[in-house]
Amino acid sequence: DIFEKAAEVGIKKHPRNLKEEVTYGTAGFRMRADSLDHIVYRMGLLSVMFSKFRSGVTGLMITASHNPEEDNGVKLIDLMGQMMPIAWEKYATSLANVSDDKLVDVLQEIAKLECIDVTKPATVSIGRDTRASSLSLSEAAVDGIEAMKGKCNDFGLLTTPQLHYIVCCQNTVGQYGEPTEEGYYKKLSAAFLTLNKNRKVINYVPELYLDLANGVGAPKLQQLCAYLGDVLKINVCNNGSGKLNYQCGADFVKVSQMQPVGLNLEPGMRCASFDGDGDRLVYYYKTSEGKFALLDGDKIATLFAAYLNDLLKSSQLKLNMGLVQTAYANGSSTNYINDVMKIPVACVPTGVKYLHHKAQDFDIGVYFEANGHGTVLFSQTAQKLIRNQASDNSLDEVTRDAAVRLATIMDLINQTVGDAISDMLVVETILASKDWTCEDWDSAYTDLPSRQIKIKVENRLLVETTDAERRTTKPAGLQEAIDEVVAGYKHGRAFARPSGTEDVVRVYAEADTQANADKLACEVGLRVY
Ligand code: NG1
Ligand code: ZN
Predict the structure, then answer these.
(1) What are the catalytic residues?
(2) What are the pLDDT digits (tens) for 42-59?
(3) Where is each Phosphoacetylglucosamine mutase AMG1 domain found (predicted)?
(4) Ligand 1 test: best mutation among 371, 423, 503, most atoms within 8 Å of CB?
(5) Residues contacting ligand 1 via CB (< 6 Å)
(6) How far is 49 from 45, CA to CA, in rounded Å?
(7) Burial tier of 320 (Cβ tally within 10 Å: 0-12, 13-18, 19+)
């Protein structure tokens, strides 16, 4: 039987050599690469079961994003390019933890619970980042897929969002795009070039300085550039010659609020960083006073939302728009969206799956994590209305042009998941269309000083949270202690939550000055110990 065969291959080639229990977390399984082999093999098995269950192509990505080079990870992708549903995470977790001799039982159990017809055909598309461990782990995934008699499309090196895009294309033949890496570059560059045709700019300089975190974004960006010509000049650094994510990349820049190594930041330069797997993007620049200034996910979200809102107004399309953030969003951004932009804003727990889900409540849902991961979702209705109006020649020019622009922006945005390449092209398009510099963009609102720190504790899962992670429910007394500390700070806000990707509790704090934000984070951190 197929499950026994899968278990046999597992024992022989990918035995379980890990004692600790692991869980499918915020972004799948993530840990030291040398503990992952059996988990990836088993996720290969699960990706086939999931494909049979869904009757379509599923995806499996090998990456640990912004984590250090020694780590790696695996996550599964659903038919439309979104994350595997939360309801399936428990299967991933039990498969990863079961002993080799009980593997058959867990596979049978999943098949039974989800009524899966194991004789059905299955296809899984896989991709991987540039880590040294990624190739052999992707081979473990292939073994898993083949042991379950699934067909495997191995796309080799890809950014995470490229794989999400390809899986979506494979399941929506002819609708979302060509299901290849080439198709991805063609679709994005065509939209970008159309949107930037005939632009008249004085302040906007079509030159970007880009830190690629020494990750998979480096070779991919290079391929994209061939399509952009001189419409956007990109000067790259950390493009693969140095250590992955080390003192560079979007996470480093966001958390340390500092420029990456390898970049000589001067006033007038517009800079950006990708993370290791190319799904996060942050911008930054040096002010004329010589200060480092960050334009993070919140700034990108408000830029996108304001621009789309203007286009909606000009097009007179009756579509609602909303913004989704997490507790890490800077308080100033939330106030700005509420009070100035007057757009509804929702707060959800950390993790793209929650943001993505919530954004589907709107005709146009903009979601971003402060760390630079995000995208825009257009509902089926919105897409249809926008495309219809874009091709309606009976309308006046202004109304129709706005719809044409909206339709082209839809093609530029990777709606399956946050995508650094796509988001970067959207930012550049908006800045060019407004003829803005970074300072112009940054002037909408001023960030409250903030600090994020990590606390190493015995067992991070003793901390439990509620209210989109903004308050703790356990251990007893912790929230009261945090409230008391926060009350002593002007514009103070702080929270603590267990990380889903690292063995730490994260503490975030905001206050009126940087020194106070730092101090508040430390004081809250002390309460967590
Ligand atoms: P955790 O480790 O659960 O905080 C981090 C990021 C998330 C998300 C995931 C997946 C922060 C504070 N947290 O999750 O936003 O990006 O990694 O990569 O940035
Ligand atoms: Zn990432």
Answers:
(1) 65
(2) 999 999 999 999 999 999
(3) 180-282, 296-436
(4) 371
(5) 26-27, 65, 328, 350, 369, 371, 373, 499-502, 506
(6) 7
(7) middle
